[in-house]
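anyone else get weird line breaks when pasting these?? whatever heres mine. first is seq + tokens for prot A
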Amino acid sequence: MHLRIRSLKSFAELVRLEHGLMYGIGVFIGAILSGWNLAFSSALLVGFIVSVLSEFGAFALNDYFDVKADITNRRRDRPIVRKEVSPDAAILVSIASFLLANALAFFFLNSEAFSVVFLLSIVSMLYNVALKNLPLVGNLFIAITMAVPFLFGGLVIGGIGQPAVFLSAIAFFVGAGREVMKDIEDVPGDRKVGAKTLPIVIGAKWSARFAVLCYALAMFLSSVPFFTFFSQKALYAPVLFTDVMLLEVAIRLWGNQSPGILRWGRKQTLYAVAIGLASFLLASL
């Protein structure tokens, strides 16, 4: 076994540290949306750590199985491709992260929260081994992982609030759209390794249409709180910026699936999600 992780930067890129922190913060946001009064909670702290570790395990495993496709697609942002992290080190990081996440959840969280962590760990492994190359299945799984932290935060404190459910649904549809866009961008490498992703099966044009549909559903869901549980809270208004950004991406993507538009769109949708998170959080305080 050859273990090599050249630097902390290489490790952070392997596990997508920024994504892990976002998932962990999502747990706190989900708890706030479910009625947490901001008092110190050791369970929520454990929930944060568990969420981050689960994300570490999933992304390290992803890079381990994606080496051939990433080399073909010239993904120089992947430390394994640059030989700064060895495949053996990546699989070891993944296994250790999953084991620690499940152990912490088992000993320190309630049974419902542990069940979610355990189930997602198993499905994440299945995703990387077999599901990711199936049309749409892999995209929907990643979208679920983007949605779960908000629900998980509610589970950790004993109950999921209605705002957390809506934010989770919005995150799911935006996540599905972003993942389909990523698959459109990765078609050359995916085709060479025999993957059957959605764009390979139905083409870039119709895959883009599906992504646009996902963004439209997210925009619709984001409007519902204006007329229900956030109807009296002007602090929710910034979510309109989220909708405008998603609409712009949808309009451009409808007629243009070039690599530049796909990369720009994925960044824009990430910023849109961040603004949406802030809007839900402000309106819930």
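and prot B, same format (seq, then tokens)
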Amino acid sequence: MILEGRTLAAKIRETLPQRAEAVRQKLGRPIKLCAIGSTDDYGAYLYLKKETEAAQKTGVQTEIFEVNNQTPANDFLALVEKLSADSSVDAILIPRPLPAHLAATNFADRLAPQKDIDGMSNINMGNLFLCKTWDEVLALPGFASSTAMAVVRLLLFHGVKLEGMEAAVIGRSITVGRPLAHLLTCQNATVKICHTKTDLPRALKDADLVCSAAGTPGLLCAQWLKPGAYVADISTNWNEHTNRLCGDASPEELDAHGVSYSPVPGGVGPVTLAVLLENIILSGERKL
């Protein structure tokens, strides 16, 4: 089975323009998203532009503030605090990667959790890890990682029963790996977190579900997995040999081995964008 994401993404996005318009009428202004993006990473910055353009089509006002490796850390922190305090700003997005000296600051402490639509703030992260059940996740006053939420929602959309599953998450980043592992435990899966020091063939041989966010083409070998397993391929990599986007696993190998998987592109990616857009709308709706 191919766990395609475009159908679910379209379903999530279908009512967002109407919801944005309803907020505009009640607030007397459109929902406003402010993004802080690094121009040092060309690919990430282009994707940020794509996200803001998608938000604009939904009826959201957007503004991008550019930073780079020359931006003083104090200026960056002051901007985060200013946007967090500005009542006319409803949503804030600060995509990684950031320049190292900015990433090393305590900006996550200064990011208003009610505006933090990608679950980066320490308060939102802490609230997520206090959740034990999925109902508690859905009742969070802030937000969780859009990518992590997209993975779980995609699996549920395709009827994958997570309760009781042996799951493995490859990658322990605070943006995807760790939040996703916790969300899966809230769905009553038993989760193993894998990283660069993990013996992957040994760790994955009994896994019912593997979620790979390593960002390394060809890292995940189908032969390590048992037939009937599921793979959520989260990474979006550029294959220099084929000049095409790809994930961490070969879809042809997964197919041949009897493993269901999310494709790259067209799997987790479009759902992540849809969840992010939905969070922007929620940030405005929660002000009503």
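btw re prot B: The longest strand covers residues 32-38. The chain has two domains: 14-118, 134-269.
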